[in-house]
Write a structure and sequence with these properties.
The structure is a single chain. This protein is of the alpha/beta class. The chain has 6 helices and 13 strands. β6 and β7 form a beta hairpin. α1 packs across α6 and α2 crosses α5. It is globular.
Length: 242
């Protein structure tokens, strides 16, 4: 499943934090990963291939990574921060999803924690005054990060299904079954321009991972927008059609 640029088929992720988006409403999780990869200039070390992934290819999404073509599932890393980011760029084929999750769990087995980013339909948020962010964490994650979660005072999700969240809950349950420290963080969003939702997801993640990301400053977030966002909704309409 793992296709690394150096020709190897495995990687030592002991002590790493892995960030994985789920394809959900508004693509907020994917956009948040775009911001993390671009801002921290994570190095692309290879791709993930699996029958669950629809194959695609395109120009690089990042200015700092201009020599690499975009693919269905990309692997980025910062070894000094012990940070790994997976970026998904195609839908997942449901009949192969369980095996895909099994392979991801095996890849993340030695990680110190796995964080899944996704989103949910805004109309599923029934308490207007409540935070637009909610999370699910397994017992291993809670034990390792009890103090930090207490400081953040995030709202813990009490439901069973994150509507519009794609495969996030299934992946979380697969990680939990293997006792991999896992957190699912999501935001209630509406379809449209979800770049702000992605920025807010990154801000929440930065508060949790303040030692690793260090994106926030006293003046707010310092985010680098990927070059691919210039055409987030396609090319501009040409003047010649009028």
């Amino acid at each position: 499943m793992l296709l690394l640029k150096d020709g190897s088929d495995s990687i030592n992720l002991e002590g790493f934090t892995a960030i994985v988006p789920s394809i959900g409403v508004g693509n907020a999780g994917q956009l948040a990963c775009d911001l993390i990869i671009s801002t921290l200039q994570l190095k692309r070390i290879g791709n993930i291939w699996h029958p669950a992934l629809i194959p695609i290819a395109g120009p690089s999404a990042f200015q700092h990574d201009s020599q690499n073509k975009a693919a269905s599932c990309e692997v980025y890393i910062d070894e000094s921060k012990k940070l790994l980011a997976i970026q998904l760029r195609s839908p997942l084929i449901s009949k192969h999803l369980d095996d895909f999750h099994t392979n991801l769990v095996n890849l993340f087995q030695k990680c110190s924690r796995v964080i899944i980013l996704t989103s949910s339909f805004g109309y599923e948020k029934h308490t207007i005054e409540a935070s637009p962010f909610e999370y699910i964490a397994n017992n291993v994650f809670k034990q390792n990060h009890a103090d930090r979660l207490g400081e953040l005072k995030w709202t813990e999700f009490s439901g069973e299904v994150v509507h519009g969240g794609g495969n996030a809950v299934k992946l979380y349950k697969a990680l939990d079954a293997s006792n991999v420290p896992a957190l699912l963080l999501f935001k209630y969003v509406l379809e449209g321009d979800n770049s702000m939702d992605a920025s807010q997801l990154v801000k929440q993640l930065d508060e949790l991972m303040e030692q690793e990301l260090k994106i926030s400053t006293v003046n707010g977030l310092k985010l680098t927008v990927p070059v691919s966002w210039k055409l987030l909704y396609g090319n501009e309409v040409g003047d010649l059609i009028f």
